[in-house]
Protein 1
Amino acid sequence: MSERNLKLLKGNETGFGLLIEYDGYINPNDEKNKEVLEKIKNDRTPENYGKTEFPLELYVILQKADTLNHNGRIYPYNILKKKVELYKELILQYISGGENEHPDNANVAIDRISHRITDIWWEGKTVVGKILIYVTLGFVKYGVVSSEGDKIALLLSYGHRVGVSSRALGSVNKENDVNVVQDDLELICWDIVSTPSTPNAWILNSKSEISNFTESKQKTNNLLESKLDKFLNILK
């Protein structure tokens, strides 16, 4: 399918097209990330530039299987597992890069690459991994922001909550009132997004923060949970 005819599938749409999900994030509260992010924050002053250890590699939540996401879609575990295994080949070839903010197309623009996934694995039914942020020597030594990776590093140094958005091609079919991603799924990349649009993509400091969501979002989440229960019961 040509880029011109490629359709971006919205949450309530089925068929074949571009699938963009905001389900991942870089968690600054993760113990594995705290030390390096605190180091960047402390070294942000001019007299300390150049002291931070680079490359900048962090742990990241990428995606969830068998879970209704914000778009009302389910990525079945058996399908996503196969596609993650294929994506590992891109990692081994050092071509698992993504962009700073996602475009609505299937191409990874080389002039906008800000990072690369360097490892990927499963923790339960959650896809997790390591992400290498591409920062320039100018940022490391002088704090000069001149690349997409530098922008991400700067946001992280100020404690900005950073999300991760998957980009893929595939079909979505309606199955028992639930939109289910099909086996023709092709993972393109995971992009970094500064303003993720779903609750799961934000970093929440405590359970109490969840109460800040609007009543309408709570009703939406309850509806999605009900659909998921119905779908999983049928699979048993």
Protein 2
Amino acid sequence: LHLSSLSGRVGYGLEHVVREVVEEFAGQSFPFAERLVLRDEVGEVFGLTGAEVEFDLYAHNGVAYLVEVKSHLKAGDVLKFYQKVKVAERKLGRQVIPLMIALSTEPKAEQRMQELGVRYRVRRTS
């Protein structure tokens, strides 16, 4: 799995956690997994035509997952990710399963993910 600079942002070992979570949800391994960057020609996500729309991971093997990783997840992050996923589905011409992974999250963010059908995993430490 190529996960961009995630380890530099939220700590080493994250690549392993992301791989485990995606494979746990899917029940399979993914030979095709990469960082994905698409161009938003109409400015749907950021209000700027031609803006790049990035995903931390695009894992596909029959079924496809788009993954966003955050150290702390807020409700606004969920809405932005959901918008990005809708653009990606149109550009890729296929349905994807949106998955957010966070080290911590606000309760409103979890509620928003449930409302929008975004799968998630919060890595809680006790």
Protein 3
Amino acid sequence: MTEMNFIKVTQLKAMPISTELDLTDEAKALLTEDLAPAQYVKCLMDGTLYADAIMFLAASLSKRESTWWACLCTRSTLTDKSPISDLKAIELAEAWVYKPTPENCGLTLAAAEETGFKTPAGWSAMAAFWSGDNISPNKEAIVPPPNDLTGKAVNGAIMLAAVQGDPVKITEQQELFLKQGVDIACGGDGRLTNNG
């Protein structure tokens, strides 16, 4: 992989991003004070610590980019046999990414609930909902979501998406999804070509 330039990650150092994450001991051992987020992700990828890298990148990206990444990974797992609730959840999450208005954000909660929070699509919709300004069901009471909720939902969506297919290919799926996330962090749209 060539040098990564995370233009979509505003934090200059990896350490502040990682403090609230439940990284493995192996991932924590690679972390140093001076590592930039791109360098840390590269270290994690080189060590095939894909789950840690996904968790870290989900927390590193802006809420919109992170949610787009979840949508992209989730969309790749949907088939013509996917439940209508999953299709609706992913469509509404994508609608929020394309137009992040309070109205579009608000629609994602009910869609996520319809999935029973058991699918990547449901967690993609929750990522969109938790990216808004208010998680209170009462519109008069403003309750801003904690900053880390979107990243947690994105991580959940991507990790669930990685186990949707052949169990033998989970690591391969995680690596592919991670490459998509890196592309987004570097300013791309995450839609990789077959040789991506």
Protein 4
Amino acid sequence: MGVPGFAFYVIVGVAFEELLFRGYLITRLRQAGQSLTFAIVVSSLLFSLGHIYQGWLSIIVTFCLGGVMGASFIKFRSLLPVYAAHLAHDLFLMYGYMARHS
């Protein structure tokens, strides 16, 4: 997969993750009467487990980033800033990976 295809994959993947883990899961857990902390922790845990193939360090880092993104979603009441931050993060990582492996 070339850079344009990989970039498209990142853009779509980030949108899916944000819609699912922040937009849907946190919102539904809150509607079901769960505490804000519980909703963010569960969302972050499931988000981080989706990155298990990257190893334990990545799971821990992703869990922490998921918590920050979950709290940001609550604070801003919007997925747009969370999506933008997540996308910038992933594109930065993609650029670093491509630079090292070209």
